[in-house]
Amino acid sequence: MRTDADIMPLRMDLEAERMDFQHMMFQNMYEGALFLSPIKLDANSSVLDAGTGTGLWAIDLADDNPNTKVIGVDLSAIQPAFVPPNAEFYIEDLEDPWTFSKPFDLIFARMLTGSIGDWPKFYRQSFEHLSPGGYIELTDIVFPIQCDDGTLDKDSALYQWGKLTVDAAAKLGRPLRTTTAVVSELVDAGFTDITQHHFKWPTNHWPKDPKMKELGAWTYEDVGKNVYGLTVALFTRGLGWTLEEFEVFLVQVRKEMRDPKIHGYFPIYAIHARKPDET
């Protein structure tokens, strides 16, 4: 989902293609699963895809669960016109008060870091609109880029790009998320049974493992080739850089991101938490 204050503006047609490509990456990483929460959907279930984007996840879920109602919400009307009969899409701002008439059994939110200004409020509203025993599932990318073998120097342009991205987002009131903050705020909202899953997206094809090598190549297509569009507003609006300064900086960032001798990766987390049963 994107907002008027979005810190990562892109051409919407290109962003839609990137969202669909990213959905494929998650499908591959999850070996075909659409979510990780331990919940079985049935004819009485209802699911909210918060920040649905192109709606591809919601459509796939609706196709796989034809008796489950699936609602997708986003600020951008980029969802297809023809969708499964059990899927509905609405153009709304998730930061406004929620007005859904019935509770959900699963609230799903993926790759929304930087799109929500008040995450504790988002978690509170999610809690209020879940059925007892229902789950919230959150999946996102973490900045800056990490490395386990010392091949990514913290003075490098690639590492500094990630660090400065975090700094700029905070200055613009759109903080990028860490797992520590997410878990703490979920607890404060009343959630229990919080479970974390951690993954790595290599910055390019550097891994030896064939599956991770392929994932790294996809990550470069998803992020590496889009570093300008993903972060230009952050650097110019948040840090006050000129476009010329930013473009010169990105020359080295791109060079390092595609260098297989640098074994960097983006941490990816998936966290699901349950609303307690009524007592």
TrEMBL record:
<keyword id="KW-0808">Transferase</keyword>
<keyword id="KW-0489">Methyltransferase</keyword>
<dbReference type="Pfam" id="PF13489">
    <property type="entry name" value="Methyltransf_23"/>
</dbReference>
<comment type="similarity">
    <text>Belongs to the methyltransferase superfamily. LaeA methyltransferase family.</text>
</comment>
<dbReference type="InterPro" id="IPR029063">
    <property type="entry name" value="SAM-dependent_MTases_sf"/>
</dbReference>
<protein>
    <submittedName>
        <fullName>Related to methyltransferase</fullName>
    </submittedName>
</protein>
<dbReference type="GO" id="GO:0032259">
    <property type="term" value="P:methylation"/>
</dbReference>
<dbReference type="GO" id="GO:0008168">
    <property type="term" value="F:methyltransferase activity"/>
</dbReference>
